[in-house]
Write the structure tokens for this entry.
Amino acid sequence: MFCPYCRNPDSKVVDSRVLDDGSAIRRRRQCASCGRRFTTMETASLSVIKRSGVAEPFSRAKVVSGVRKACQGRPVSDDDLAMLAQEVEETIRADGAAEVDAHRVGLAILAPLRRLDQVAYLRFASVYQDFETLEDFEQAIATLREDRDPAPESKQRPLTYK
């Protein structure tokens, strides 16, 4: 790290702090030559590879804006969307890859959105998964119902001991 004042390549770390969400480290450094102090930020880069092959930095704001469209008119707050975006980023970073396919980002959005709001989930999934017919919607709704409804008691078999 070059000193921004005298361009000396040698500095020592005086203090390190992890930022709130743990995604970056703030380091306070002191130049070995001029003695002046400066701050650096360290983050692990995460790039999203789009369908066109272009790589761009991962952005929570883009996740929020994409999901916000699906949540329009639904009882979902900005805080809910921020938490969803953070969960998506944590899920993707947990894989340990520096580059991730845009499709993987979409898949990472589906699960937390499903828990947040099922109608918004259906809206997002219908675009993301290219629903083309009513049967596609019916299948998605049936899957949501299966996951939500426990087995009715009348269909459960009683335990018998012999």
About this structure: Confidence is low (pLDDT under 50) at residues 152-157. The chain has five helices and six strands.
